[in-house]
């Protein structure tokens, strides 16, 4: 029997204010964010949304496999699609963007 290749899926769970990384369907990582609009604040319709990416967490058993980078990359790609600007509170995200300049256009200072 040939084992299937693992599939990594990253989705935005807006109800929980986090991106979720699932490996073969199992939740193995989260990237929590804080969007001021979800807390009842109002911004002008012409304003670009600024979302704080707060923390990146990978389940310990799945650490050191590059999964955090997969999740962060896909979350940043989704943020670009949503028209968000990102405030990188998470130190892992700060290092990722420093190493991946193609995402620097999304970043606003903390």
UniProtKB/TrEMBL annotation:
InterPro entries: Acyl_CoA_acyltransferase, Gcn5-rel_NAT, GNAT_YJDJ. Pfam families: Acetyltransf_CG. Residues 11-108 form the N-acetyltransferase domain. Keywords: Acyltransferase, Transferase. Signal peptide: none annotated. GO terms for molecular function: acyltransferase activity. The keyword Membrane does not apply. It is an enzyme of class 2 (transferase). Its EC number is 2.3.1.-. This is GNAT family N-acetyltransferase. It comes from Rhodococcus daqingensis.
